[in-house]
Amino acid sequence: MTGWIKFNRSMIDSPIWGSPFTLRLLLLLSCRALQKEFMYVEEVKVLRGQYLRSYTRLAEDLQYVENGNLKIPSKNMIRLSVERLRKYGLISTEETKIGTLFTLLQKENDFSVLENGRTEDEEQNDESVMNAPLKEECKKGREKKEKESVRAREDLPSKPNVQMRVEKVTEKFLELRNSGFYLSPKEKCAIEKIAEKDIEVETLVCWMEEIESSYRKRNANSTIKSFAYYEKALLRKIRSSRGTSKLPNSSANLVKETNDFLAKLERWKREAEARMANGSKRIKPAIGPVWAR
Question: Pick the residue with more confidence: 30 or 220?
């Protein structure tokens, strides 16, 4: 896109000036807003000063680099900034089947084609410039859903239970963390590692609640922000449970030995009774306690 847009100088006195991310979002919506009177995108009518975009693609638009690391904002963070802009009367939103329609509530002529430095040739190209990325987004969205559907069907026969376990552990972690839906690659790997353990998923979820409760008591009701903490604690609990699971086996062996010894006693008793009936001398069997063997 070319040309320029207008911003009022009073912007530096507005409440959103103290929120850099919200200000970036407003700048993005202002720069991407449609400059023509209207256009249609997948049967959705977009008017001048409006922008049609999904939250997923907005997260990609608003990504940035900090200290050499790529930062991608979460959808929850974007929604909070959108609500802030709506609260101060800067935008309005409308949900559609292909995304959210953002409307900039600016004064008259703020997005006039004649005032934004565009030529007639650029005006004619405006529809194609606006339409191309939106159609591409719709196409990518459909392709992504198709790929996810195919991948889900392929993975279902091989690891149906693991996928379900991963989803339940992920859902519980996001619920306990209560701060957005973004998961780092490291956290995703840790969740998969825990989900593959031979422990009932209901037990894992219960342990996570216990870990969170214990953490809150020690840290003034603050929440665990990283799954790495859960991973270490859950691995300790898994090792502990497997250590105690050996006790039933030992008890079973002891019961078996006791039953065998009682059977021998019964056999010796019958042999002794038979000898006494025949008048032979009784021989006392040398029986030692089981624990002395």
Answer: 30
pLDDT in tens, 108-165: 555 444 444 444 444 455 555 555 666 666 666 666 656 665 555 455 444 557 888 8
Please give the model's pTM, rounded to 2 decimal places: 0.41
List of domains in the chain: 9-153 (1.10.10), 159-244 (no CATH), 246-292 (no CATH)
Q: How far apart are CA 42 and CA 94, in angstroms?
A: 15
Cα torsion 141, 146, 147, 148: sign: positive
Per-residue confidence (pLDDT) for residue 92, from 0 to 100: 92
Does position 205 have pLDDT exceeding 50, yes or no?
yes
- Alpha-carbon span 199 to 241, nearest angstrom: 9
| Cβ-defined contacts of 186-195 (< 8 Å, 24+) | 186/228, 187/226, 187/227, 187/228, 190/227, 190/228, 190/230, 190/231, 191/166, 191/227, 192/162, 192/166, 193/231, 194/169, 194/230, 194/231, 194/234, 194/235, 195/162, 195/165, 195/166, 195/169
